## 1
Amino acid sequence: MIVRIMGEGQVEIGAADIDVLNELDSELEAAIESDDETEFRTKLHALLDKVRHVGKALPDDSLEPSELILPPADASIEEVREMLGDTGLIPG
């Protein structure tokens, strides 16, 4: 799966890592639902850090279509709330 972190670039994520990312996504959703800004910030950074860690960075000149777009680390809770779908930021 090709993932874009807004403002950073693209990474390729293996199927084996999706479950861990979904767990972090669920924790982020819970923080958003409770309107807990501190917890939201912690969970957003944890999700993005995990994507960066398990993902293989694609070259900057790569034009692969992104299957998933994640917010930047400095996104507001409202901006991320607007990006959430029925299954969170990460489907599955």
## 2
Amino acid sequence: MTRSVIELPVTADDRRIARLAAVAIGITLAEAAIPSPVPGIKPGLANIVVLLVLLQYGWRTAAWVSAMRVLAGSLLLGSLFAPGFWLSAAGATVSLLVLGLARHLPARYFGPVSLSILAAFGHIGGQLALAGWWLLPGAALIGLIPVFAAAALIFGTVNGVVVARLRAAPDAGGPPAAGAAQ
């Protein structure tokens, strides 16, 4: 057996990111099995993990978890570099950018539910922007905007409520952030 010359130290943060990404990837795979009445509309349950990570460990860790979820989820689903991968990557990127900006908003007005709604709108906005630029003419997308916006509002709210309840649970690893509004 040849020993590798390159040895990368594995930190506790690396292990935490890997565990959290594995949970998000597992949820992504499970969610892929759920049939959708409208193509492209899913509850985004893995985003619950990303939002929990953001609130607990910060934006950088959330970005790693989200990126690994998109890459590994697409690889495991057999859609790496297919249009669905790029749409997912665009949605995740815009969602993370929105969350990065939103973390500068007053915490007492922007808690898990409002952050989840903003992230959901960012996600669908990123997907629609890429789809309009690459896959569908702009006029075809205009009729879909109300459907996708309603889905973002509903699923963003539900996912945000789940995050708020998980953070409020006594065994959630601590109390919610001080002054965080629901």
## 3
Amino acid sequence: MFLSPKEIKTETGQSLLYCPHRIQVSKEFTFDAAHHLFQYDGKCKSLHGHTYRLEIAVSGFLDQRGLTYDFGELKAIYQSQLEPKLDHRYLNESLPYMNTTAENLVYWIYKTVEAALPNERQIQMEHVRLYETPTSYAEFRREWDEE
């Protein structure tokens, strides 16, 4: 449950909290990977690679330090849960069986990060955006998971 600024005090009796509302924080990562697409009639049916850009966004209420979720903790989730399966990997072999489209990847990433989040201060996934090229991305949002 969220604690109001009046309920969290420092040694001096003052609160470090200012915002009583939910805040979203996000972190970006890049990784290089190869893949090919099944049932696709175009260049992408052949083995090829991308430098992907990944944005992960979560939201929640502030902790006693005034942080929603530490950027370092998001990085730790990326490094432990995602990077070993994504970076410099052949995605068709390193991920669960799927057609490795940006759409399928973004959903797998969303669910993987969601499972690693702590159950505190109503921390929740907001969205994952995955750029396959500098101008093309797929995105999955929390509200779509609730439909």
## 4
Amino acid sequence: MRQPDIEIYLKDASQQAVSDWLQQAIGACTPWQRKGQTFKCNANGIPVTWLPRAVGKWHCLLLESAATPWPDDLACAHAAHQALAVEIRCAPGGWQEEEALEEADRWISVGQDGEREIRWHTD
């Protein structure tokens, strides 16, 4: 089942590198528009939000559509790591507000050593 949106966290990735990757993976991107602390653009009809340093050194990338080339966050994380050669983190699946808080700390890291589950307290 496709996720309704994609959310990944990238370590040490530049906004320009991410923009170039999105253009190659999805299609033409509009120029980034700053909205407070976030930046927004549109990649081939898909609304994109970039939040620099959302969690420490980690930048958040949100693709607000189910019409991405990736069915879920993990598939996108693998594609982003392959293209950008930086560590990527994503949730292991959709998280619901009703779930236990410890479930919110479960993340998957995709990096040089492959894929592994980690605990990441993001608050």
